[in-house]
Structure formats: structure tokens, C-alpha cells
Amino acid sequence: FLPPHSSWDAAYERELQTFQDIGDAGEIWFGEESMVRIIRWLEKHQVPLDSSVLDIGTGNGVLLVELAKSGYMNLTGIDYSPSAIQLSEKVREKEGMSNIKLKVEDFLAPSAELSGFDICIDKGTFDAVSLNPDDAAGKRQQYVRSLGRVLKPQGFFLITSCNWTKEELLNEFREGFEILEELPTPKFCFGGRIGNSVTALVFQRK
Fold it and tell me: What range(s) does the Methyltransferase domain occupy (predicted)?
């Protein structure tokens, strides 16, 4: 479902071009409903509007724009793809959202100033890391270590995944994180069996 690592840049290059041509923010990888689900959860739990939020693998930055529109003020987006960050900068400028910080960062080797976040959000980045043909298991472990470094103790981690079940994610994040809740996601039916194509979980750092 997710293109391999090297083609992300190409995809964002295309989106950048499209955005420049027609001012369209391009494909939202996980669709509108996953953004609504995240924002609803934050609102329901009355997460303060000045909480520091990190969008891991921000892509075109549309989630951050929606968070800013919902009143969140302390927003950071990172992506290892410079094209993605350029694209999200253009989206940010078009929307006039000056309170969104954007940085080119590899989450598996985060810089020192990437720390102390109240909330980390991932829609599909852990999936992409998991599909890396080059030592995927090691990269997943590194991801969990990085998350422990950038997220404050008691901080929240909201993950949306297309590749992993709830049980698998619980296992991946068992070191240092506990599950708070599973968020409802659309069900699909295949051959008479009902399953979820998307898993969305909220963890809290211990």
C-alpha cells in the first residue's frame, strides 16, 4: 500500500509541482477521516491548545494546518524528504499559518532539539519504516527508541497504521508505552470476514 522509501521523494516532487501549478495540497495519504479522528480525540480529552505537538513524517503538512485551524499553537512537522518539507511550507504559506514549524529530520536519528513534546502523531510513517527492505526490525526498534527520546513522560502518541494490527502495535511499543485506547476506524468486509483496514491507537509514554 505504501510506496517504498525511495519513491516518497518522487511522489512529493510531483505534489510540489502540482501545488505550484494549481495550488492543490495533493493527496492526503490517510484521508480526511484520520485527521478528524485525531483532532476529535485531542478535543475530547481537552488537550491544552498550547501543548507541543510533533507530526512525524508530516508529508504535505495538511494535518498541522487542520490542527492550527482547531486552535493548536505549538506545532512542529518533520519529514526526512526535503521535497515534503518544501511542499508543507507552501501549504503553510498559502494558509497563512505562521505558528507551524517545519524541519527536515530523520526520525530514526533525531537532532538534539527534537525533544520534550507533549504529543506525537504518526499517520503511516511507522508503516513506511516497517517496509524498509534494509533491516526493518532494527529500524522499528530505533523508531521506538526515538519516540521515547522526543516524547515527554506521560506524553501521548497517536498512531494510524494500515499495515499493523492492534496486537502487533501493542507488541512493537511495549517498551516504555502503554495503550490508552483504540480509536474507531472504518471496517471492511472481505470474503465474509470483517476486518479493519486501518488501526488507530493512542499510547501514553510511561
Answer: 52-181
Which grid coordinates are listed for 1?
500500500
The DSSP result for 47-60, as a single string, is --TT-EEEEET-TT
**In whole angstroms, what is the distance from residue 90 CA to residue 143 CA?**
28
> pLDDT tens for residues 167-188?
999 999 999 999 999 998 876 6
Superfamily per CATH, domain 5-205: Vaccinia Virus protein VP39 (3.40.50.150)
pLDDT in tens, 83-109: 999 999 999 999 998 889 999 999 999
Other beta carbons within 10 Å of 198: 20
CA 39, distance to chain mean position in Å, is: 13
Give domain limits for the chain. 5-205
Nearest to 102 by CA among 134, 65, 48: 65
